[in-house]
Amino acid sequence: MALSEKDLENMGEMMVQKFKTIYDPEIPVDIYELGLIYDAFVNAEGQAKVLMTLTSPNCPVAESLPNEVRTKVEEIEGITEAEVEITFDPPWDRDMMSEEAKFELGML
């Protein structure tokens, strides 16, 4: 069964809520506010794709963090599968963090 436009809009909001429950273990801020999520979408068949980055190519959670993102996204009702792609283009930097994250880390 294909998802409606309304369902797809809700999926985006639900994905953001899931991203906000995932933390980089070295930084006490969630991956969404850190700016690690570059793009996320769901098609009408419920297949999700997340394009994200890591704080550095040598990030100690390079293996586990994408798997955690995939698992959390697949928990959303209506999503049949999720793919997580890691990119370093553009490379992450502190300017990608939200104001909330910068405040949390004492950078404002």
TrEMBL record:
InterPro entries attached to this UniProt entry: Fe-S_Maturation_MIP18, FSCA_dom_sf, MIP18-like
PANTHER family reported in the protein's UniProt record: FE-S PROTEIN MATURATION AUXILIARY FACTOR YITW
Lineage top rank: taxon: Bacteria
Domain annotation MIP18 family-like: ranges: 20-85
Protein name: FeS assembly SUF system protein
Pfam families to which the protein is assigned, alphabetical: FeS_assembly_P
Signal peptide per UniProt: none
